[in-house]
Amino acid sequence: MSASSLRDCQAWRAEGLSMSTTSNEACKMYDAVLTQYVKWRSDETLGGFEGCVSALHTADPNFVMGHVISTGLELIGTTTSPRLSERLSGAVKKTVELANGQDLTPRERLHVRAMQLFSQGNLPKACDTWEDVLLDHPTDLLALKFAHDSYFYMGAQTPMRDSVARVLPHWKPHMPLSNYLKGLYSFGLLETRFYDQAEKVALEGLSLVPDDAWAVHAVAHVYEMKAEVDKGLKFMGDRESDWQVSGMLASHNYWHWALYFIEKGDYDAALHIYDAQVSIFRRAKVSGAMLDMVDACSLLYRLEMEGVGVKDRWRELFQVTQPHTDDHVTLFNDAHFLMASLGVKDDGTSQRLLQGLQELAREPGENQQHQMASAVGLPLFQAMTEFNRGNYDKSVELLYPLRYRIVDIGGSDAQRDLFNQLLIHAAMKSDNTRHQKLGRCLLVERDSVRPNSPMTERLMKTALALHV
Q1: Number of structural domains, the chain?
Q2: Which of 22, 115, 233, 291 falls between 20 and 30 A from 401, CA-CA?
Q3: 213 within a domain of the structure (yes/no)
Q4: Average of per-residue pLDDT across 80-106
Q5: Widest pairwise Cα distance in the chain
Q6: What angle do CA 411, 258, 458 make, to 5 degrees?
Q7: Where residue 468 falls among pLDDT bands split at 50, 70, 90?
Q8: Is there a single domain that holds both residue 105 and residue 195?
Q9: Residue 284 pLDDT greater than 60, yes or no
Q10: Same domain, 141 and 15
Q11: Last-in-domain residue among 223, 245, 267
């Protein structure tokens, strides 16, 4: 991306996306931030995210959409809770106050409203508001991306797919960033089990933009969900030089690569990827990104379920997750923080996380995640705690009724598969013969949707050996 290609006031106006600022520099920096967000890549030639945000606010301190994108990105990153951070809640308040004092377009006002709703945890209404933007302005990529990410946090798979499908006809090949929509659409397709179509669309996108890390990530999901391990390993290896440059998504794509090795039972290879690319020393601590943290937790938890010793790595990772114990921004994040505290056997932190969420669940207000806590989040976390204590019977009793509701905590099918594996392991280890039978039934069920899965075959052999 070159500075000369960034859109100024007139260019945005020509696209039907007028900005309430007279500063061409502010408009260009808005474009620079948006482009980096879409590409999952910090462009250091422009000063990276922080440099561009700083330049944006310097060019026009009162540019409302500048505040919408900078504050919105911090909110959508979920690394900071506006409930706890006066600085972040103050940034939201400032944006709203600036908007109230200016003659904005209806589109801009909707953006401010959506950002405010998201900050309150009202993700469904925030998404409805971004969809209102897209109804009249289907090429507003900020609205599309914010909605896409928010649907992901809610596990709203079909809306995430259809949100992109609705706007696709309005995008033309000459439009900036248009090729990146294929990766977005592919992800919605695969999350609604249209795997072949998802692969086709993502590969079309990669033929146009080989370094679109999100499209690579979509194909990685397809091969994971179909247990096509060898295809996945070859695909990730062949394209590593393309996607590893996207610093914001590189760790997550390495996480996918490691999943293939866990599927195969090659734990040493998975641990090598963890240590070299995912661990706190490589990414999670350095980036501070929530995705990097939860990926690290997820890998260690999966390896531990497979019987791999990772205790020292838990201690290292806990240094990064423990400060987020009171955040409670998403249930998905909380689940992964709990993995870390259970991994180091820090009962105090585990209880603090559970009790804090219990308190918020009593009076959730408009916060969608806190509303889900009593029905899904807390029983799930209790099941994880019981499993950790060796109370496998109780873990099964808590987990089994949740199996079709866990989608509501957000994340992808591949990420949430960890909880399917947890239920199977708990059932296999339970002393209850009906639970043991359930475990075998769940493996048969798994085999029907992921034929030729090495993990399923391995677990079935274990189950049969345990329950002769």
Answers
A1: 2
A2: 291
A3: yes
A4: 96
A5: 76
A6: 95
A7: low
A8: no
A9: no
A10: yes
A11: 245
